[in-house]
Q: What sequence folds into this?
């Protein structure tokens, strides 16, 4: 292995980092908001709302992300006149937005189950105590349920975030040149698969390491009440 | 040209223009590929788990690095690496024996190896956790009965390991099944690739990707039920908490 080759490909691969970060960042953010709303909606326990959400979650968790990306990018492209009439064609024409939409819906499906589990873990007694103290339903949600539920859901959500960072690599199949797309390009030109894999892989590992450390720090901050008092 | 012709659904039939037979055959390839990859992953995962439990520093470091790398790097990148890296090795080898030009690896075998390496990293963690969940006292009891190590493994560890590992293995299986769609990028005609071919030649991508999604969903649901059944079967001797 020669160092000069690494020095040559590293900047090329890093040029894809902003796109990888954008895809991951937007889809994790939008996905978390959607997941949260879906999890709250399921708490209402109304069949009219439950059934569509459960189907959505089952379908997006039971099919490959690649199929979802292709369905949105190529499949919906078939309805161009209708999408143009709705003024949405500008969105569905761009692989960038299609990838973000697919990743968002995918992570929302997994995330809603994680948050739902967190919400269910809140002891009923705490909610009853808050109600007895005269808190409104919104106040109970904000002060009692959410702090406990989010702390509980955090480790599992951390895994989901890492899966999303990895999932952004599929955007390269619909022509977006993020890190994996660039890596594929370099490999098929130079056939130096080991070096390119090591280099691109190291970028992803560093990224995921950063994610786990940040989440570990948040978890630490949120669990002060569980630690023994400082001596 | 209407965007969604009336005969669109006929494309998924068994008739002259229908793609049903091709799609079902491709679904069988997906299932076979996933099974092969999962089985290879079980072998690699068991070895990696044994290495991490061995208490030997070097072995456990290798196994640890393996699991960290292949769980942290995108699966697509791993697939490109194995396909191009393997093909290069094969081409180099071929040239020594006088072959000409580029030699590509067989796609099914490469896909199996890729899914095996990726799922092995996840399965290693499952097996390790399951092994650690077996109560220590049971080993002592086994020894007190004068069992050999192999007999303890067979009669005491393996049955319980399976019970503890099954829920985790079910998750890894679902992951392998969905990951198998990525093997389409190296040209294997499995379900995803067949759907792409159908979409391309009929210009009806929507209906073909919906069909593919439903077939994946059907395979995932059916095999998920199998895992559920296996879980109940191995847990039948235990009280539920």
A:
């Amino acid at each position: 292995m020669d160092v000069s080759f690494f020095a040559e490909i590293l900047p090329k691969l890093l040029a894809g980092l902003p796109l990888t970060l954008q895809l991951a960042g937007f889809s994790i953010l939008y996905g978390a908001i959607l997941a949260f709303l879906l999890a709250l909606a399921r708490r209402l326990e109304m069949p009219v709302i439950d059934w569509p959400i459960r189907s959505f979650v089952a379908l997006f968790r039971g099919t490959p992300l690649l199929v979802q990306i292709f369905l949105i990018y190529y499949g919906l492209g078939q309805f161009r006149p209708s999408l143009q009439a709705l003024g949405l064609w500008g969105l569905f024409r761009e692989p960038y937005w299609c990838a973000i939409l697919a990743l968002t819906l995918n992570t929302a499906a997994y995330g809603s189950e994680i948050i739902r589990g967190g919400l269910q873990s809140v002891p009923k007694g705490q909610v009853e105590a808050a109600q007895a103290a005269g808190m409104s339903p919104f106040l109970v949600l904000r002060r009692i349920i959410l702090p406990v539920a989010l702390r509980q859901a955090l480790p599992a959500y951390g895994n989901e975030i890492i899966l999303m960072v990895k999932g952004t690599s599929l955007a390269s199949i619909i022509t977006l040149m993020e890190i994996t797309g660039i890596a594929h390009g370099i490999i098929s030109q130079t056939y130096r698969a080991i070096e390119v894999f090591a280099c691109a892989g190291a970028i992803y590992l560093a990224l995921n390491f950063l994610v786990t450390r940040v989440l570990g720090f948040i978890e630490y901050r949120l669990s002060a009440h569980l630690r023994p008092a400082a001596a | 040209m209407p965007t969604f012709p009336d005969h669109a659904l006929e494309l998924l039939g068994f008739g002259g223009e229908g793609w049903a037979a091709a799609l079902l055959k491709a679904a069988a390839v997906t299932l076979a590929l996933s099974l092969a990859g999962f089985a290879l992953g079980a072998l690699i995962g068991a070895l990696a788990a044994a290495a991490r439990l061995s208490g030997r520093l070097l072995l456990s470091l290798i196994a640890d690095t393996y699991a960290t790398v292949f769980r942290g790097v995108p699966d697509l990148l791993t697939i490109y690496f194995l396909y191009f890296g393997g093909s290069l090795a094969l081409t180099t080898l071929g040239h020594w024996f006088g072959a000409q030009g580029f030699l590509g690896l067989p796609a099914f075998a490469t896909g199996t190896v890729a899914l095996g390496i990726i799922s092995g990293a996840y399965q290693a963690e499952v097996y390790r956790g399951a092994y650690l969940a077996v109560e220590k006292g049971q080993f002592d009891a086994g020894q007190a009965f004068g069992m050999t190590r192999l007999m303890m493994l067979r009669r005491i560890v393996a049955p319980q390991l399976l019970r503890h590992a099954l829920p985790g293995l079910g998750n890894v299986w679902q992951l392998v099944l969905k990951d198998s769609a990525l093997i389409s990028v190296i040209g294997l005609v499995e379900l995803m690739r067949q759907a792409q071919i159908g979409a391309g030649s009929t210009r009806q991508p929507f209906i073909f990707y919906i069909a593919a999604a439903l077939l994946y969903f059907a395979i995932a649901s059916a095999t998920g039920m199998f895992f559920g059944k296996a879980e109940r079967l191995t847990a039948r001797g235990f009280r539920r908490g």
